[in-house]
Design a protein that fits this description.
alpha+beta, Rossmann fold, OB fold (Dihydrolipoamide Acetyltransferase, E2P), 2 domains, five-stranded antiparallel beta sheet, 20 strands, 25% helix
């Protein structure tokens, strides 16, 4: 197991492009950390710097308290699982899993024992004699993971490992990766653009945007206490709804609705008079109908999506749009008018200029 520390890590390419800005993170032994964000946010670049596949432009990278900036990938004792599986097509599953141990000159009896034990964990025992082309996508990914975990290194790095799988396979592999982590207790850093993967796998999540860390926290902290509009909108499915409005006489108006900012912000309300605020609420936080101690909004139903356990209802209030998550038995008719309520405790307010949450 390993303790990892990244202090003011920067990546600047020769053409001047600044891919990662002042990245700071301490990772405890055995933690499962997920880097999440849209394409181009710097998450994979950061992972590659940890792996030793990219040089660190500025900052200090430490493993167990020792500076590791200049160490090569092998010296860092990391194992990496790539998006593309990177299996050797001419080798059997057994030989692919055993490859790292074979290079190290490990005794054949030991290799056989370790490969069989690893295959049993991953459900690959019956496939050890097959070539990769005879496997499904999910099975190939298991082989790639097996090749990594058999080495018993302290740090596992996974770069979008499930992106080539279909939806059902991704769900299955998520649970298998979680189980493998519970069994190995290895420090794991996992990169994805899929917030569902991040929420279901991570001990802590690092949300990135345009090379900057936006927030670091547990899935619960990021979901219920986002620090800004970006994090609030990125974490959650469907995403948080946002309505922008200018504060006039303590109110924000949108369509035929108005929000009493003074009631929600108390003494802070005067500071935002004449300024723009962003009003946010999650789709599942609403109740249909007018409720006491809640923000009430009138809207028109534009579209409904029946998903089995719930229905997504797309509504508009003049130019403002929102998604509501309701019980399928309460699905409203298309083009109908409805009133929904948002309990005041479920309302988020963000500064319209900085987009930071207003505490």
């Amino acid at each position: 197991m390993a303790y990892i520390s990244l202090k003011n890590i920067n990546k600047i390419y020769p053409n001047g492009y600044h891919a990662v800005h002042d990245f700071n993170l301490d990772i405890e032994k055995g933690e499962f950390i997920v880097f999440v964000g849209p394409s181009g946010c710097g998450k994979s670049t950061t992972l590659r710097m940890i792996a030793g596949l990219e040089d660190i432009s500025n900052g200090d990278f430490l493993i167990n308290g020792k500076r590791a900036n200049e160490l090569g990938p092998r010296e860092r004792e990391v194992a990496m699982v790539f998006q593309s599986y990177a299996l050797y097509p001419q080798m059997t599953v057994f030989d692919n899993i055993a490859f790292g141990l074979t290079l190290q000159g490990v005794d054949e009896d030991v290799i056989e024992q370790k490969v069989k034990a690893t295959a049993a964990i991953l459900g690959l025992t019956d496939y050890l004699d097959r070539l990769p082309r005879a496997l499904s996508g999910g099975q190939r990914q298991r082989v790639a993971i097996g090749r990594a975990i058999i080495r018993k290194v302290g740090i596992f790095l996974m770069d979008e490992p499930l992106s080539n799988l279909d939806a059902k396979q991704r769900v299955t592999m998520r649970s298998e990766i979680a189980q493998i982590h519970r069994e190995t207790h290895a420090t794991t850093i996992y990169v994805t653009h899929d917030q569902t993967e991040a929420m279901t796998l991570a001990d802590r999540i690092v949300v990135m945007k345009e090379g900057y860390v936006q927030q670091i926290g547990t899935p619960y902290e990021l979901y219920y206490n986002p620090v800004n509009v970006f994090v609030a909108g990125f974490i959650g499915e469907p995403p948080m709804n946002f309505i922008r409005g200018k504060v006039e006489k303590g109110l924000i108006r949108f369509g035929k609705n108005e929000l009493n900012v003074g009631k929600l912000l108390g003494g802070k309300a005067k500071a935002y008079e004449g300024k723009e605020l962003v009003f946010g609420f999650r789709p599942e936080s609403i109740e249909l109908g007018a409720k006491p101690d809640a923000v009430q909004i009138k809207a028109t139903v534009e579209l409904t999506e029946m998903l089995g356990d719930n229905t997504n209802v797309y509504v508009t209030a003049d130019e403002d749009k929102a998604i509501l998550k309701v019980d399928p038995h309460d699905t409203p008719e298309l083009d109908s008018e409805l009133v929904f309520s948002i309990p005041e405790k479920n309302v988020y307010l963000f500064d319209g200029e900085t987009e930071a949450v207003i505490k």
